[in-house]
């Protein structure tokens, strides 16, 4: 990197995102950021929603509804970047879709949660993160970010969205774009991955901008309710977390800090603030080369801070500190063996640059949950793999810091798988009761009020019951939520069916048994292929006896 004359406005040149080997399906190879294409949301008269049923037969394993009934199995609904359960009511959940906006349900524990879209009329549906106001549960803050597996494409970078009536039928939203501050979030195309709000205090972690200069990215702070923001820690923001035991203490992960700040000589890593984000000091966690730290998560519980740091899409360390970052203890690497002598880590797809989630247990300081990108197969006949996964589904683990690290034992006794088989001799306490697992590409995890882990991933939203042992299972909570990233759609009037290709959730057939003129819409949605759907076409004129469906796939 070559700093310009004014180091505070130096242009950053982060390392390009890694491509993915074609021998490791199904993955996505993030490419250079595409130009922003802003589309004004419009509702045309005569269009009605077809989101009446979930899409079944998706790329999950034994994912039933919450009662355990098999009426809707392996449901998917599109990539969910952020999940937000009500802290005291398990029936209330919010979901922020990667490119589908913010949704709310008041029936999160039911077999078929009824989800309501809340931001359809906003300029952007690309959610980076969302939080409740610590002082007012009715206030919701949303950070706009482009974190899609499809080359990180998304909507307009308008900044932040704020509502103080999140439970109204139609919440009113205010755009916080810092137009009155030193840098306009909208005109500089600034994107956010983490946000926080408590009264007039707002913090937001910015990871990208155009131009990608130091003055545009980092930790932004407002003390006037979001009217104006100041950049208090320049660099590429990767994560932000509060300490629930101290309202003034925050942690952040930032890259290029020494490059972007004339007053700070330290490198990238985990930083701590003791004055509500006004000033920051670096903790002792080892630094990575500038530009390599391309993803991170933080989670704080019981005065212990956990950090997960990624080095060019591959997990570098999962560590914890009990003294506010003065010293860190590293967990063993997550590894499972294959029959061919190789091992699989947390992210066999090596695309952790956008696919990682981490959650510290709220009462047990030694328990940590992590989600990587996907399962892999290197055994004869491919699947099942070591932990019993039968496909390219989610790869999630539970860590226990009270178990001593071994550094060379595979699998490490510190880690137990949260999915699939509970009969793995090498991990006797891992797995699930019913051999279940969610979709691949973990994005977020939060604890629901009933003790279940709420999980957002590349295919939708699900829960893991009894997450502290292997007596629980994974259950789908997509309900009528549909936030698919659709590449192509085709309709035929003979049977009234629709076919559409989606990124990450394959090609989906919407089937109608009614006359095409009916206004009742589609009766069912079924995945007819997995991985990444693409172009779809339907030929209903060439044959008098058949309707011919065509669809292209990636990694199918």
Q: Which tags fit this structure?
A:
five-stranded mixed sheet; 556 residues; 1 helix; single chain
Give the strand order, joined by hyphens, for the main sheet: 1-35-34-33-32
**Strand count:** 37
Shape: globular
Helix tally equals 1
Sheet-strand content, in percent, reads: 35-45%
Rounded Rg: 23 Å
- Biggest sheet layout: 5 strands, mixed
How much helix, percentage-wise, in residues? under 10%
What class, by secondary structure content? mainly beta
Task: Give the overall pLDDT as a whole number.
Answer: 89
List low-confidence stretches: 1-8, 14-41
CA distance, first residue to last residue: 40 Å
What does the model show?
- With 556 residues, this protein is an all-beta fold.
- Helix content is 1%, strand content 36%.
- The protein has one helix and 37 strands.
- It has a five-stranded mixed beta sheet with strand order 1-35-34-33-32, with no helix packed on it. It has a four-stranded antiparallel beta sheet with strand order 2-3-4-5, with no helix packed on it.
């Amino acid at each position: 990197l070559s700093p310009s004359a004014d180091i505070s406005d130096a242009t950053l040149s982060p390392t390009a995102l890694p491509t993915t080997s074609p021998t490791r399906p199904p993955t996505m190879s993030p490419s250079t950021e595409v130009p922003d294409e802003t589309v004004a949301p419009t509702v045309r008269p005569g269009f009605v929603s077809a989101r009446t049923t979930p899409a079944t037969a998706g790329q999950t394993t034994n994912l039933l509804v919450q009662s355990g009934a098999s009426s809707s199995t392996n449901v998917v609904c599109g990539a969910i970047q952020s999940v937000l359960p009500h802290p005291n009511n398990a029936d209330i959940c919010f979901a922020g879709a990667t490119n589908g906006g913010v949704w709310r349900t008041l029936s999160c524990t039911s077999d078929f949660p009824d989800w309501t879209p809340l931001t359809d009329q906003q300029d952007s549906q690309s959610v980076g993160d969302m939080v409740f106001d610590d002082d007012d549960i009715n206030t919701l803050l949303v950070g706009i970010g482009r974190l899609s597996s499809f080359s990180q494409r998304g909507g307009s970078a308008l900044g932040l969205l704020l509502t103080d009536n999140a439970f109204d039928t139609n919440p009113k939203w205010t755009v916080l774009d810092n137009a009155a501050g030193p840098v306009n979030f909208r005109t500089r195309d600034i994107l956010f991955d983490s946000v926080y709000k408590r009264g007039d205090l707002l913090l937001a972690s910015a990871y990208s901008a155009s131009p990608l200069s130091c003055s545009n990215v980092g930790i932004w702070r407002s003390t006037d309710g979001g009217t104006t923001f100041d950049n208090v820690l320049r660099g590429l923001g990767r994560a932000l977390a509060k300490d629930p035991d101290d309202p003034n203490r925050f942690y952040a992960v930032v890259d290029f800090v020494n490059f972007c700040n004339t007053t700070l000589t330290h490198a990238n890593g985990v930083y701590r603030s003791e004055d509500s984000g006004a000033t920051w000091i670096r903790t002792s966690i080892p630094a990575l080369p500038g530009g390599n730290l391309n993803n991170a998560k933080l989670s704080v519980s019981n005065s212990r801070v956990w950090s997960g740091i990624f080095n060019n899409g591959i997990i570098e360390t999962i560590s914890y500190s009990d003294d506010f970052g003065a010293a860190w203890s590293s967990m063993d690497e997550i590894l499972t063996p294959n029959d061919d002598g190789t091992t699989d880590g947390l992210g066999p797809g090596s695309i952790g640059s956008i696919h990682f989630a981490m959650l510290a247990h709220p009462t047990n300081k030694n328990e940590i949950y992590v989600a990587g990108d996907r399962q892999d197969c290197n055994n004869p006949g491919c699947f099942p793999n070591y932990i019993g996964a039968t496909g390219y589904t989610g790869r999630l683990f539970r860590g226990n810091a009270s178990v001593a690290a071994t550094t060379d034992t595979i699998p490490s006794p510190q880690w137990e798988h949260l999915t699939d088989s509970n009969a793995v001799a090498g991990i006797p306490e891992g797995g699930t009761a019913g051999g279940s697992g969610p979709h691949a590409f973990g994005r977020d995890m939060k604890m629901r009020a009933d003790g279940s882990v709420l999980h957002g991933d590349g295919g939708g939203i699900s829960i893991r019951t009894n997450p502290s042992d292997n007596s629980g299972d994974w259950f789908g909570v997509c309900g009528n939520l549909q936030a698919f990233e659709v590449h192509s759609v085709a309709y035929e009037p003979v049977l009234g069916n629709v076919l559409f290709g989606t990124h990450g959730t394959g090609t989906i057939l919407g089937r109608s048994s009614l006359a095409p003129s009916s206004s009742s819409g589609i009766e069912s949605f079924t995945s007819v292929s997995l991985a990444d759907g693409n172009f779809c076409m339907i030929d209903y004129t060439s044959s008098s006896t058949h309707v011919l469906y065509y669809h292209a796939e990636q990694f199918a």
